[in-house]
Amino acid sequence: MGTIKDTEVDFVAIKGDRKLYLQVALQLIEEQTIEREYRSLKLIEDNFDKYVVSMDDYKIPTNEGIEHISAWNLDEILRDKSFF
């Protein structure tokens, strides 16, 4: 976990000189929840990949470069990015 400007990022994966940021939510149904989950990732000023992960079975459009993925697809992202 990490913090930035009084907000929190749930997971930061680091491998060598690469990073991957993950924000996790059960569901992204309410606009207030969506804003809260994306807020901390939007504050990060580097160009590493940023994802919001949820149990939703639909995909939310990319938001300022931040991708939404379903939790059951997380292993594909981590494998594609060579984090394991």
Description:
The chain has 2 helices and 6 strands. The longest helix has 12 residues. The protein has one domain. The chain is an alpha/beta fold. It has a 4-stranded mixed beta sheet, with helices on one face. It has a two-stranded antiparallel ribbon with strand order 1-2. Strand 3 and strand 4 form a beta hairpin.
Structural features:
two-stranded antiparallel ribbon; 4-stranded mixed β-sheet; 84 residues; alpha/beta
Order of secondary-structure elements: EEEEHEEH
Q: What is the rounded Rg?
A: 12 Å
Beta-strand percent range: 25-35%
Q: Give the tally of structural domains.
A: 1
Which outline best applies? globular
Structural class call reads: alpha/beta
Biggest sheet features = 4 strands, mixed
The percent range for helix content is: 10-25%
Helices and strands, with pairings:
Elements: E1 2-4, E2 7-9, E3 11-15, E4 18-24, H1 31-42, E5 49-54, E6 67-70, H2 74-80
Parallel strand pairs: 4-5, 5-6
Antiparallel strand pairs: 1-2, 3-4
In summary, what is this structure?
With 84 residues, the chain is of the alpha/beta class.
